[in-house]
Amino acid sequence: MHARGCAGEGWLGAQQPCAGVNSEGMDADADETLEPVRENGGDSTGGGGGGSGGGGNHRSRRPDPHDDGDDSSDHDDLNEFMRSRAFSWDKIPADVSNAFRAGLITAAVVKNYVYGACNPLSRFLMEHTWRGMRERFLADNLFLTKILIEEGLGICGKLSAEYEVRRGRFFDEIDFVFANLLMALLADFALVYFPAPSVNMAVLRGAKRSAGAAASSSSWRQALSKWTRNMPSNVFQVDRAYTMQQRAACYFYKVAQLFTVGAACAAIGVALTNTIITARQWLDPGFAPRNPKSDIVFTSLMYGVFLGISSGTRYQLVNGIEIHLFPRLLGKAPRLATGIATYLLRWGNTFWGSQQWAMWAMFTGAQKSGNAKAE
């Protein structure tokens, strides 16, 4: 059941990310049935709350969210929260409502859904894209804010750098600028998306599989999928007890993901730029590009290595600060203060990363000197 608009939050109206989350949710099985929460932490997770987002790492055991009894103060607070935003239970998707009824997620996760549904853009992303997107909004009501911050910083930073290099040729070479900007925007989105916490409904459900399905689950793809779903989304996640091996595996898994995305983004950008150079030379034999054509394979590998190791490590640290430090420092502060702190943290990270990429590109030769002649 899809949510409709409601009164309340604006574009940046969000609180701290919830702690009761798990990793990747892009291929969850929607037909699995719910299992009750285990008292010892078990396999199921609940939504925690950082700051004023509600909850902690406790479980909600309210048997029915439609019942306004007095056996759960969290549930009463959730009902009041929803009433204040003209939101009702019939606007909550069935899987989220059922998970809350079964005690698999806390009120904080439901609140995160309400925050997202109150925003037209985040509501569109939750309802009309892939499952993993919605599961990140369920885990973090600052997720849209972080996307906008990273993409905004990326656009401003990239355009400034392009103008500094091209100066009077900026508009004459706007096609090259666009190709480079496209690569940067795709990479920036990946850097927000992949390390972000998520409420993985697949992990929260117990599967009723037939004998044939159980046999097929022994394949390496099924085993890999199960292994990655039980990882934290980032090294510093604390929604449940993870082993050091799981945290270490999470780091290297995210490095591999970002390497793949970085290499693909670079390949797209370089191929597009080289195509533009070829087309211009064909249309204007006198055209002399400032830089020679880049080698697609080498540049893609170097950018993939940079995105995986440098960016992957930095964004793990950024998420760790947002999960652990911000709730302690800003737990009782207005939401605007949290948004400003998030912006400053990510601006500093972007600036630092730009310096690292410039040094890495010069060291490896991934970017040629601006004085080089075209081939």
From TrEMBL:
It is a multi-pass membrane protein. Residues 1-77 are annotated as: Disordered. It is found in: Membrane; Plastid, Chloroplast. The keyword Membrane applies. This is Uncharacterized protein. The keyword Transit peptide applies. Keywords: Chloroplast, Membrane, Plastid, Transit peptide, Transmembrane, Transmembrane helix. It comes from Cyanidium caldarium. One of its GO terms (cellular component) is chloroplast. Its main location: membrane. Residues 43-57 have a biased composition (Gly residues). Belongs to the RETICULATA family. The chain crosses the membrane at residues 176-196, 251-272.
